[in-house]
Amino acid sequence: MFLSNHSSTRSTRWVAIIGLLLTSLLLSACSMVRLGYNNAPSLTYWWLDGYADFDSRQATRIRSDLQAVHAWHRREELPLLAQALKRLQSMAHATVTPEQICSVADDVQTRSHSTLERLLPTMAAVAPTLQPAQLQHIAHEFEKRNNSWREDWLDGTVTERNERRIRQIVDRAESFYGNLHPQQLALIHTYVTNSGFDAQRQFRETQRRQQDTLQVLQDIRATKPGSSQAMFEIRGLLERSLRPPDPNYRRYRDQLTSQGCNALAQLHNSATPGQRDKFLHALQGYETDVLALASQSLPTRFPE
User: Fold this and answer.
1) Is residue 34 a contact partner of residue 292, using CB atoms and an 8 Å limit?
2) Domain count across the chain
3) Residues near 118 by beta carbon (within 8 Å), at least 6 away in sequence
4) 1 is a domain residue
5) The 3-state secondary structure of the chain, one letter per residue
6) Residue 12 clears pLDDT 50, i.e. is over it
7) Mean pLDDT score, 270-293
8) 113: domain range?
9) Among 17, 23, 189, 194, which is least packed, fewest CB within 10 Å?
10) Model confidence over 80-125: pLDDT tens digits?
């Protein structure tokens, strides 16, 4: 969503990042979609390796499984994505409701979750083989990203942080609609200023997920459970990442989602005919790329 806050991607655990990459690569500029998607297994592997510093045996398993998931995603998920893009096109020149926007967001989450489920056996197989140095490496990478997040969303004044969020939202919206008019810019400013976004709260949840991840990985390494139990533990970790245990945090997150859906509906409904044409053209371009990707044959080897 154009109005989703920056923190959502930074709070994604290494367990979840594979599926999100496979999905988010489709949301790049149209000219990069095909190249990015076709290289998704390699890009995802290097992203994960940046966290865990895999050894050769782990790397072989992960690379092979990423190729298999990519083949499944191309075969099963891309046609569904093309259908979703076609449905969105019918909304380009229509008046939309916040409920419709949130429904689109729910569909994206469902598709991402489906991809993550395909990777649970890989995580369950690799987790028991992680060495103490690798777990320390993961913890170190978490902290590096936390420091970067602090600089962006906790340091500085509220005004500076709000201006950063506004710039991000405007840039994303203009990539679909073209230049925004003053009323739309004012709408985004009001949305950010009045948003319930709480950087400290987001950061605490990020840290909870990180500690949860490290604890689960440490426990699996220590106990060396069977594959079924390891799957159970990894699935629980994923579920707690997608649905945090704290009901207050879930209400907070739902509130932010509702605010974002409402703001995006207002933004779209204020679009000029020219902006709507540009939006429709962008969606058609994505659909064309997705259909082309779905029809392509798979590469014969994993890129080095």
Assistant:
1) yes
2) 1
3) 19, 69, 72, 73
4) no
5) CCCCCCHHHHCCCCCCHHHHHHHHHHHCCHHHHHHHHHCHHHHHHHHHHHHHCCCHHHHHHHHHHHHHHHHHHHHHHHHHHHHHHHHHHCCCCCCCCHHHHHHHHHHHHHHHHHHHHHHHHHHHHHHHHCCHHHHHHHHHHHHHHHHHHHHHHCCCCHHHHHHHHHHHHHHHHHHHHCCCCHHHHHHHHHHHHHCCCCHHHHHHHHHHHHHHHHHHHHHHHHHCCCHHHHHHHHHHHHHHHHCCCCHHHHHHHHHHHHHHHHHHHHHHHCCCHHHHHHHHHHHHHHHHHHHHHHHCCCCCCCCC
6) no
7) 93
8) 7-295
9) 194
10) 989 989 999 999 999 999 999 989 888 888 888 888 889 899 999 9
Q: How far apart are CA 100 and CA 84, in angstroms?
A: 13
299 — pLDDT class (breaks 50, 70, 90): low
Structure tokens at 23: 């999905």
- Is residue 2, in this structure, part of any structural domain at all? no
